[in-house]
Amino acid sequence: MLDRMIVEQREYFAGRGEAVEWKTQAHDVPADLESRLRAAGFVPEDRETVLVGETASMAGEPVVPEGIQVRLARERPDLERIAAMKSEVWAADYSWVAADLQHRLASGPENLVVFLAEASGEVVSAAWLEINPGTDFAGLWGGSTLPAWRGRGIYKALVSARAQVAAARGVKYLQVDASADSEPILERLGFRAITTTTPFVWTPPATGR
């Protein structure tokens, strides 16, 4: 049954001509889930650490580095600039991010808050807060910073900015799936690791003319 479910998900997105991501958790069952995903053509990306922290302890006034402006992003041109920055950071095509964020901002603006950080008009970092209605949790997602701008406190400022919004909306806890670069920053802010997660991605085969 599980193998059929995996294939059904793959084929659904294949019919749309889109890639699909299946995130596994270290505690998932059955124990051979990752092997089943590999057999269906899903490819693992880097393992991430799932961390959780109390919103109140993260919601101090953001300390924004000199020369950096942190602001909300809502309009399509800004979302496209964010997508272009992410594509550069991860050396992959993240152009789809602009349409995805625009759709979610339009359909549930109360549950998504997008921030970008600019330096002399260039988007150097971005991240967003996704509130989970009916729960005490919100997720911190999308955090990416251009390599030349890392180590200056921009990522930390974006965490604080999102935590302020979450606190104002009564969210008690923040959850992050963190890369190896982000994990130590988050732990210094008070986040605690609870498990790990591995994204498995299936990408449609390229079609020739």
Order of SSEs: HEHEEHEHHEEEHEHE
Strand content: 25-35%
Kindly, what is the distance between the CA atoms of the first and last residues, rounded to a whole number of angstroms? 36 Å
Please state the structural category: alpha+beta
Query: Unreliable stretches, pLDDT < 50, 5 or more residues?
Result: none
Radius of gyration over alpha carbons? 18 Å
Total number of helical segments? 7
Let me know the number of strands: 9
Number of domains: 2
Shape: globular
Biggest β-sheet: count, sense, barrel? 9 strands, mixed
CATH topology-level name of the largest domain = Aminopeptidase
Model description:
The protein is α+β, with helices and mostly antiparallel strands. It folds into 2 domains: 2-45; 50-197, Gcn5-related N-acetyltransferase (GNAT) (Aminopeptidase). 36% of the residues lie in helices and 30% in strands. The protein has helices at 2-16, 33-39, 55-58, 76-90, 96-107, 154-168, 183-189, and strands at 20-25, 43-44, 48-54, 69-72, 112-119, 122-131, 137-145, 173-178, 192-202. It is globular, with a radius of gyration of 18 Å.
